[in-house]
Amino acid sequence: QVQLVESGGGLVQAGGSLRVSCAASGRTFMSYKMGWFRQAPGKEREFVAAITWSDGVTYYADSVKGRFTISRDNAKNTVYLQMNSLKPEDTAVYYCAAQDYNDSTYLRRSYDYWGQGTQVTVSS
Q: Which positions ≥6 away from 1 have C-beta within 8 Å?
């Protein structure tokens, strides 16, 4: 089992920055990839970004490319999502997810463990 705990969400004005973190514990050595998803009210949960633990290969949704940066600290078993130039449409609950084996990066169903989520609100 892998436990994931997100932190760092909050309220920020449009154009501002925020960093959310995801601390992983448990059987983390088995995890292949970590991802961030988000879910706005009334919408489906969507892929935001992902990174592989071993070599740090990154993936981004087109909507956040150039504004968000995903990174990881293997020593701390922590993944970060640095969000810059935030827009009101980035408002959502942000979820961290872990994938045990190499599978689709962009699909929710390919991730095995999920955190409880952290709220990010961007005011206009």
A: 26, 27, 113
121, 52 Cβ separation under 8 angstroms: no
Q: Coil, strand, or helix at residue 76?
A: helix
Give the CA distances from residue 66 to residues 34, 100, 115, in Å, rounded to whole numbers and listed in that order: 19, 27, 25
Residues 6+ away with beta carbon under 8 Å from 74: 53
Tell me the pLDDT tens digit for each residue of 92-119: 999 999 998 888 999 999 999 999 999 9
Q: Which of helix, strand or coil describes residue 120?
A: strand
Point out which residues pair with 70 in neighbouring strands: 81
